[in-house]
Design brief:
The protein is mainly beta. The protein contains 3 helices and 23 strands. The strands form 6 sheets. Strands 2-23-22-21-20 form a 5-stranded antiparallel sheet, with no helix packed on it. The chain has a 4-stranded antiparallel sheet with strand order 4-5-6-7, with no helix packed on it. Strands 8-9-10-11 form a 4-stranded antiparallel sheet, with no helix packed on it. Strand 6 and strand 7 form a beta hairpin. The longest helix is centred in the N-terminal third of the chain and has 6 residues.
């Protein structure tokens, strides 16, 4: 998703639908201040009228004060390290060339671009750009679409991986590796918590990469045939939590062979949670409640229909986040769903004109 400027903070007001609660769609509307720019329609809606008038370009704020900005374009990713921020300025997904912008935000009122990374992976880092704060590393793989789109002038770029040292001076990343992996393909990616393994995910495959020596990334297996978008792992690296965009599922996988650096290490799915109607699985984040393990999981889109009447049984108009209990890792269980007003089926007609693909 692109934006016309780099924001230093975002506040999103959400309505929570707690499974088993009395009111499935209980609202918690925010009380906005006099200088805020609140939404003009439903919670979460950017109506066509605001797009036509230019109101949407001003952004929407509620109890959030902008202290500084830098005119920019961005696509799909953003990460930080100390007083620096990193994002891709590539517009669109299809083989566009750009770079990764490095911004010094030590003075939040005057963010300043300090570097521009253009190695093959960084030129279109898509959704892959990741910082590992303990190791002081910035990693990117090349944004590739599983539909088979190839790069115009560099067929090897889809297998590109770039690693930078940002620990010495985050404003000037030092290139450690600009390599083409043997067969791993990128699009998104994730570190395991110790920063020694980075997973390249292509929405068609996922491949573990050993970066214990960040100057010499090593592919640990052939690409695993799973349609993985975003991912995360357990603290010990023995489990992976995978957003399967190919079959609309949340997967729990045994990654102990990866952690043991076994030759041709296999990623073995041991549990899955189908998410019908909540398609386009995007990413996973491990969280804990009272010591009990959960996954914060979210998707890009819901199952599409031509009209509101075509699917009267729809649960939601758009993809949504949910919280999943994984204490029984072979049988993940949804315990909470997070909606705002645009998600609610009762508001289908009000939002159906906002998207030509709805």
């Amino acid at each position: 998703m692109g934006t016309k400027r780099l924001a230093l903070g975002v506040w999103v007001a959400l309505s929570f639908a707690m499974l088993g609660g009395g009111d499935a769609y209980a609202k918690s509307p925010a009380e906005c201040g006099p200088n805020d720019r609140p939404e003009t329609a439903l919670q979460g809606q950017v109506p066509m009228a605001d797009r036509a008038s230019g109101r949407s370009e001003e952004g929407y704020t509620c109890n959030l004060e902008e202290v500084g900005f830098m005119p920019s374009s961005s696509f799909a990713n953003f990460d930080t390290y100390e007083n620096c921020a990193y994002y891709s300025d590539t517009i669109g997904a299809f083989n566009a060339e750009g770079g990764t912008v490095v911004v010094d935000v030590s003075d939040p009122r005057k963010p300043v671009q300090t570097a521009y990374l253009t190695e093959r992976a960084a030129a279109n880092a898509g959704e892959s750009l990741r910082v590992h704060p303990e190791r002081g590393l910035l990693v990117a793989d090349r944004y590739f679409l599983a539909q088979g789109v190839s790069n115009f002038d560099d067929p090897d770029a889809n297998r590109a991986l770039a690693v930078y040292d940002i620990s010495q001076d985050c404003r000037k990343p030092k290139l450690l590796a600009d390599v083409v992996m043997p067969s791993a393909v990128g699009h998104e990616g994730c570190f395991q918590p110790d920063g020694m393994v980075y997973y390249m995910a292509s929405t068609d495959t996922i491949t573990p990469i050993d970066i214990s020596d960040p100057t010499k990334p090593k592919q640990l297996s052939e690409p695993q045939p799973l349609g993985i978008h975003g991912c995360s792992t357990s603290e010990d690296g023995n489990r992976a939590y995978l957003a399967d965009i190919g079959t609309a599922k949340l997967l729990v996988a045994d990654t102990s062979e990866v952690q043991a650096r076994k030759e041709n290490a296999q990623i073995k799915v041991i549990g899955e949670l189908p998410t019908p109607g909540n398609d386009g699985q995007q990413s996973t984040i491990p969280i804990f409640y009272d010591g009990r393990p959960h996954i914060f999981n979210f998707s890009e889109y819901a199952e599409l229909a031509q009209s509101c009447t075509q699917r009267p049984d729809r649960e939601t108009n758009f993809g949504y986040p949910m919280i999943v209990d994984i204490a029984d890792e072979r049988n993940p269980k949804v315990v909470s769903k997070i909606f705002n007003e645009v998600h609610l089926p009762d508001n289908c007609a009000a939002v159906s004109g906002d998207s030509v693909t709805f």
